[in-house]
Amino acid sequence: MSGSGTARGLEIAAKVEAFVRDVIIPYEKDARRDHHGAPTDAMMHEMRAKAKAAGVLTPHILTDGTHLSQRETALVLIKSGLSPLGPLAVNTMAPDEGNMYLIGHVGTPEQKERFLRPMIAGEARSAFFMTEPWEEGGAGSDPSMMKTTCKLDGNHWVVNGRKRFITGAQGASVGIVMANSSDGACMFLVDLPDPAIRIDRVPNTIDTSMPGGHAEIAIDTLRIPASQMLGHAGEGFKYAQIRLSPARLSHCMRWLGSCIRAHEIATDYACRREAFGKVLIDHEGVGFMLAENVIDLRQAELMIDWCAGILDGGSLGTVESSMAKVAVSEALMRVADRCVQVMGGSGVSDDTIVEQVFREVRAFRIYDGPTEVHKWSLAKKIKRNWREMQS
User: Boundaries of each Acyl-CoA dehydrogenase/oxidase N-terminal domain copy (predicted)?
Assistant: First the structure.
């Protein structure tokens, strides 16, 4: 991918890599974690202070508020992902990175000053309130099933509903809430915490990299000033795609970085550990797994670069983002699984980050659309293309 980014992107990426390897990797053994293993906000702010001092805080957004190109962003986010803590430390983490992208594209100047500026400065975390409990028939992979409602009352909107798996809600300062009006889906910016937004529980989940976990939320008569609507009423699903297509690609970038690091650790182990008279890598069963890792990592990198180029040239369609999400998440799952297998007992312990990367990438295959949903979407497109060819 080095030939695809500009000199600016390569320079920023090199600074981010040096910072993550030298400063952030030692934090991987830091005991300051919440009830399900995610870093505490105190730990986050400490790391971000060091990132700011090193000149690598929010590196994908320039001082004038413009973003790097997607190919430049890929170079930077891959390097930030070399530690599961890296994206959090340099402020390229989900959901904040995607939320910053959305507010930057849709928000008014006043909304950007109030909600976006603290996020870019690394002072505030955010949450995106879309997914709902399946038991109530709510939205998940199909956002059109959204049950949360919003009604205009004077110069305020009143929101009621329930949300689930809301990443980072606990401890967030900025929220983007999706709800259905008579005109269709709407988005609102809200200050957090708010007494009308109640966190009922934060379940333990397989992934542990995101502060605040994935909360279940009750929204009871939340009153939001009309000036805090993001964009226009009825266009919420369009805005969701503005956010989700690049966000899927950003996930691919960050977790590629983590799998590159896991592969480095597994390779080091295989080149040092001896069994049956030779080091593990000289046994074909192990050496071939590492060779397959190199192939999958390279293919993931090429898929990311292809989609980033499309996004830089205009807009990234759902077809391309679905292809990237499926191809990269499945490839990285294979890489993480092989790393665990190569390292045996050491691979399932927390002596290294390999077992965490395995857990995080397993979750990645589900969020922002499971593999099967994206394949179904692609199959529908294939069918439409066939029908057009027949007519």
Answer: 11-123
- d(C-alpha 378, C-alpha 36), whole Å: 35
Query: Tens of pLDDT along 262-315?
Result: 999 999 999 999 999 999 999 999 999 999 999 999 999 999 999 999 888 876
Tokens standing for residue 292: 């397959």
Put simply, whether the predicted model's pTM sits higher than 0.70 gets the answer: yes
Q: How far apart are CA 291 and CA 52, in angstroms?
A: 38
Q: What is the DSSP letter of 13?
A: H
CATH of the domain spanning 237-390, picked from 3.30.70.100, 1.20.140.10, 1.20.1250.20, 3.40.50.300: 1.20.140.10
DSSP result, 156-168:
EEEEEEEEEEEET
The CA-atom distances, in angstroms, between 260 and each of 263, 265, 339, 343 are 5, 9, 10, 15
Q: What is the pLDDT of residues 105-160, one digit of tens each?
A: 999 999 999 999 999 999 999 999 999 999 999 988 888 899 999 999 999 999 99
| Integer Cα distance of 147 and 212 in angstroms | 24
